[in-house]
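Figure 2 data, in text form.
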Amino acid sequence: MSTALTAASDAYPMDGVRGDFTWFDNERVIRFGRDALRNVESLLRDHGFGRYALLTTERAVASAPRVCDGAAVILHVPQGAVP
């Protein structure tokens, strides 16, 4: 499975980021920002994502149950800064 969705929740400050963004890179879509989960289901559907790998934190899973339900696999990443 090479398709992945990454969503950042509003739980962490966005130092250095000037706003929400959606980035498409080949078979990946990265959605970042305070409203990252808004319209995510239609975003995935409209861009041909069926089942997907979801990279998220354990804490964020509770805020996106429908996104998690659609995932073929959920990969938990540690919270904190991204190197």
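Caption note: The helical segments are 40-46, 58-61, 65-69.
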